[in-house]
């Protein structure tokens, strides 16, 4: 085991308690985020990820961002040891407005030096976050303060500029709202962040050197654990998609033709908005798509690469079999059993893969039994609902938030 990997394991063990957030604490943070962003006309929602709250100091918006080891559950039963920010991977979404001056107080709680790059932002060179070039390395336990004016608007993101750190989770969204709202106005605005990991079944640590990936995530969750996007029939919906990984992803929306209204760095002139149902989001790119949700239904939104719609799909080590000890080799074909300690946990789409109860939440209310067996990998649902059904989901979310229910209690109440 390399010293880096050994150190990584030991720090993860020490940090596990400090980075775990209780349900109550996460609820309080979410409430603070909503209040902090209440001035935004249409705040961007990042399913399964919190916003980063801020304070005001002399007209400057002040954010506190901490890089640290995190434990991220991507689907029930699979928790990875990743590196992220403020307890999650991806880290919390930063939202601000064009013209703001912002200050980001950054603390490095990783066992390695790092630096944070503000991807696509036009800012002074000393704030660009490239260790060894535009700034010194931020050593473990040290702090660096980034401060700059926001001169743009659009969909951006932040990430470590140490390449292998990027491949173990270090990404976060950075949304800059325009001074004047975009037209036409969106009723719902979502952010989805694409990541990929190579994790063997008997490990929880991604191999950051691999070029083949078996776990594909949206906002840190693989389907069916990714939270569906819930919208009311008739809404105009904007979905912002950010990709930080090693693969390009052709993201496809069922049932609708959308406009591609933005790319990394800027909203595009309406005259050149292309129409389509699939947009290719390249590595280190962002795409904004918009559509009118005029037809009710549960519509898939996913990367269309076949293996990216499954969990634990990899040819690193294939399934291995052997005959039972009491049988002869002649009986192999009739009495095949799987060899222990070898990868056997591929999640193929089928009724056998359903885990409806394990991923139950307000946003999944009303889905057909067994739905979760057919939603895997870099995949989620866009649920377009008539007003009455949409309000039911809102009521369930409000009840869960108000009561601060643990997940199992919340499931029982929804079942009633």
Characteristic terms for this protein:
single chain; 416 residues; alpha+beta; seven-stranded mixed β-sheet; five-stranded mixed β-sheet; 5 helices; 33% strand; disordered N terminus; disordered C terminus
Descriptive report:
With 416 residues, the chain is α+β, with helices and mostly antiparallel strands. 15% of the residues lie in helices and 33% in strands. The protein contains five helices and 23 strands. Strands 10, 11, 13, 15, 16, 17 and 19 form a seven-stranded mixed beta sheet that branches. Strands 1, 2, 3, 5 and 7 form a five-stranded mixed beta sheet that branches. The radius of gyration is 22 Å and the shape is globular.
Low-confidence sequence ranges: 1-39, 317-344, 406-416
Oligomer: single chain
Q: What composes the largest sheet? A: 7 strands, mixed
Query: Number of helix segments?
Result: 5
Strand content: 25-35%
The span between the termini is 51 Å
- What overall geometry do the principal axes of the alpha carbons give? globular
Order of helices and strands: HHEEEEEEEEHEEEEEEEEEEEEEEEHH
What is the averaged pLDDT score? Answer: 83
Percent helix among the residues? Answer: 10-25%
What structural class do helix, strand and pairing data support?
Answer: alpha+beta
Total count of strands: 23
Q: What is the radius of gyration?
A: 22 Å
């Amino acid at each position: 085991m390399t010293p880096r990997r050994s150190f990584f394991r030991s720090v993860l063990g020490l940090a596990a308690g400090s980075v775990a957030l209780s349900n109550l604490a996460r609820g309080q943070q979410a409430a603070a985020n909503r209040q902090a962003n209440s001035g935004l006309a249409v705040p961007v929602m990042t399913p399964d990820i919190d916003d980063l709250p801020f304070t005001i100091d002399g007209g400057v918006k002040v954010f506190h961002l901490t890089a640290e080891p995190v434990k991220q559950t991507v689907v029930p039963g699979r928790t990875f040891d990743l590196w992220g920010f403020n307890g999650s991977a991806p880290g919390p979404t930063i939202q601000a407005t064009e013209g703001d001056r912002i200050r980001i107080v950054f603390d490095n709680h990783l066992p390695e030096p790092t630096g944070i790059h503000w991807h696509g932002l036009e800012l002074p060179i000393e704030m660009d976050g490239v260790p060894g070039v535009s700034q010194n390395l931020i050593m473990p336990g040290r702090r660096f303060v980034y401060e700059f004016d926001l001169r743009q608007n659009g969909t951006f993101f932040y990430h470590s500029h140490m390449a292998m750190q990027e491949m173990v989770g270090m990404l976060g969204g950075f949304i800059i709202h325009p001074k004047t709202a975009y037209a036409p106005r969106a009723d719902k605005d979502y952010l989805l962040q694409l990541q990929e990991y190579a994790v063997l079944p008997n490990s929880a640590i991604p191999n950051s050197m691999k070029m083949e990936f078996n776990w594909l995530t949206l906002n840190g969750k693989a389907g069916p654990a990714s939270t569906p996007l819930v919208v009311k029939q008739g809404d105009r919906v904007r979905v912002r998609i950010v990709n930080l990984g090693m693969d390009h992803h052709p993201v496809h929306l069922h049932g609708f033709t959308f406009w591609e209204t933005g790319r990394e760095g800027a909203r595009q002139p309406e005259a050149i908005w292309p129409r389509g149902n699939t947009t290719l989001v390249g590595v280190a790119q962002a795409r904004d798509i918009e559509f009118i949700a005029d037809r009710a239904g549960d519509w898939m939104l996913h990367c269309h690469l076949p293996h990216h719609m499954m969990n634990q799909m990899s040819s690193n080590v294939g399934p291995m079999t052997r005959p039972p000890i009491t049988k002869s080799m002649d009986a192999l074909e009739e009495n095949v059993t799987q060899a222990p300690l070898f990868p056997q946990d591929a999640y193929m789409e089928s009724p056998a893969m359903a885990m409806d109860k394990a991923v139950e939440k307000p946003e999944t209310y009303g889905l057909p039994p067994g739905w979760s067996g057919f939603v895997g990998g870099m995949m989620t649902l866009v649920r377009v609902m008539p007003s009455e059904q949409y309000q039911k989901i809102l009521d369930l979310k409000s009840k869960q938030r108000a009561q601060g229910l643990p997940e199992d209690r919340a499931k029982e109440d929804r079942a009633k």
